[in-house]
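# nightly structure sweep
# worker-07 picked up a monomer target from the shared queue
# config: single-sequence mode, recycle default, output format = structure tokens
# input follows
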Amino acid sequence: MDFELDEEQTALRDTVRGLLKGYDPATNFEHRREVTATDPGYDEALWGRLAEMGLLGLPFSEDDGGMGAGPIEVAVVAEEIGRVLAPEPYVAAVALAGGVVAALGSDEQRAEVLGGLASGERLITFASGETAEPVIQGARAETIVWEVGGEVFLVDRPTDATAYRTHDGGRAARLVFDRAAATPLGAGGDATDALTQVFARARIAACHEALGAMDTALRLTTSYLTTRQQFGVTLNRFQALTFRAADMYTDLELTRSIVTWATMVAADGEPDAVVDASARAKLQTVRAARRIGQEAIQLHGGIGVTDEFSIGHFTSRLTALSHWLGDAREQVGVLSSGLASYGVIDPLDA
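# output follows
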């Protein structure tokens, strides 16, 4: 497998990085603080520019108003969003809710909903259950892609949505679908298999967002160790601290390898392999996110837990991503359920 980006994917990465440079935590973290302090919790003008560049319709077909790109291009965008902790709900709206509509919607529904999402005129999100919580941007999204009992419907946003701010600066809501006017998505019926596939692909995209955040957390930490002085020398002169930073680097690169591999599996498209790869990638991401986040705060000392310094916000976002779309316990369950396929090994005959 070739894990290197080609010229077009590199150009895409550079374009997204340029669009998001206003969120750079090293030079302008105050901007993110200002954006997340006011509703809807993300920069709607920037969201519009993402739409103008075609990024909101990236994975959808051209007939549906999209660009016809694949999971690698979505991963590039998600990773850049994570790298600067941008609060724009890209993975939730495009990879998850948009992915469900693309997989199940009729021609008319895909053209209307995905076309509106791609143009930046309609925000959509995904909700599950008769009472859904937390629904990311549930009080802002015009259209809810609603799953209940294995079937999926399109629903207008309930008027009595209970909105609140999440610990990582985002927005979520509690939605109650009581006698809601719901339109079946596509032909209706049980959509469990399609949802499993969309969730797996969205999970991989979320892993890339976490990967970007971990990369920046490590970069901020090593920068701090090489500039902060104690006892007349910089902190990186203390071997024990350097070893801990090296362990963070190892965690990051192991995660980069398995998440990149999972994206290549998703690009190949074999359904069972995608689900398995997404579980492996998410399990490693969750474990690495916890270790990198905690070590980053500890190596920053007291300022690491202050709201004024950015590193704590990265740890908070990594925690949120770790629990979204299945935590470590769920991924272990998915992977252990396939152990029977390897048969029983008798140690006396081995």
